[in-house]
Amino acid sequence: MAPIAEEASLEAQAKRRKKLAKQMGKNALMKLRRTEDVHAIRELLCKSQLVVEYCLQELPAKEVQPLRDWCRMAHNRIKDLEGSIRVFIRIRSWNQRENDLVSSKASMKGTKECVAVTDDRMGLELTDKTPKKITVNFDTIMAPGTQEEMWAEVKPLVGQIFDGYNVAMLTFGHSGTGKTYTMYGTPENPGIMTRAAKEVMGMRLLLQDKCKSKVTVSIVELHDGQFYDLALATSMKDKPKISGGPKKNASGETVLNGCVDIPVKTEQQLLALVTNAEAKRRTAPTALCPCSSRSHTFMTVKIVLQNRETKRKVHGKITLADLAGQERVKDSMVDGQDLKECGSR
Ligand SMILES: Nc1ncnc2c1ncn2[C@@H]1O[C@H](COP(=O)(O)OP(=O)(O)O)[C@@H](O)[C@H]1O
Ligand SMILES: [Mg+2]
Q1: Residue 177 CA: which ligand is closest?
Q2: Of the four listed, 153, 266, 291, 310, which is most buried by Cβ atoms within 10 Å?
Q3: What pLDDT, in 10s, does the model give residues 6-15?
């Protein structure tokens, strides 16, 4: 039986090698044409990504790497052509509290969803503005989509730091709308921060034959006008204060004066820092959310890659921010310290 299985595997590998070469050929043609057509590049990128998945079933990752590199470059080209700021919308379904409000409060009776998403998932129709329908356009709308789908939208942006880009993502919106869920998620449904940490460390491993690399991380909380080092926090009450504010360093980069960049070597180390930071962040129950974030957090992962042959260095950086909610105090019903910190946002 063994020789037959071996033969089948060799045949499967040969099939994939042929497909890989064919796709690389098509991509090379596109490069020659130097097209500025986003749709054409995107179409080729989608096909190439499928070929990558298909080839990885039988071929070693190293063999598929040139096509992966092409995908990354195509993605960067699309981003350059599309513009560098992108706005995604995520609409969550009503939660228990909101359902209860609609069914119990007389003034809320008959309340309906007031937005609809267009089929291309780029237009948000404000349906309560009838008869004049208003459509607002965004880069992508998830309603609400799964954590995996959300991640698929932003994953290529994380890969861009390996090409020397600086990437920043932040969640913004009313309290209780799902910002922290999207960024941190839960252990069963991890959010962007956890997945980005895994992606960075995974890509670093893939490139290690070609490049030496150094990864550092800082996780900072901004609460009531004061910065704290969440990566070094030992409890919610015991967080080192960061004495300075933002300033430009010698290479023109904006840094937080006094903030420590911690070197990390493994995925586990980085994930442990993310989990620790999430647990030590300030939260408080409000009428809108039982575990409302009362502060902003910023996780910054920096990578320096050095090509072992050419010695060329690439510096990339990603900042992921989970902002405290914008809220109407009348709705969140906060008071005391929680009310004071609302004013400092
Ligand atoms: N897409 C979603 N799917 C499931 N639960 C969600 C989703 N978005 C938000 N939630 C839940 O709603 C509550 C409030 O979300 P949270 O992320 O804390 O809001 P925010 O950070 O915007 O104040 C949390 O219990 C969270 O688990
Ligand atoms: Mg939050």
Answers
A1: 1
A2: 153
A3: 777 899 999 9
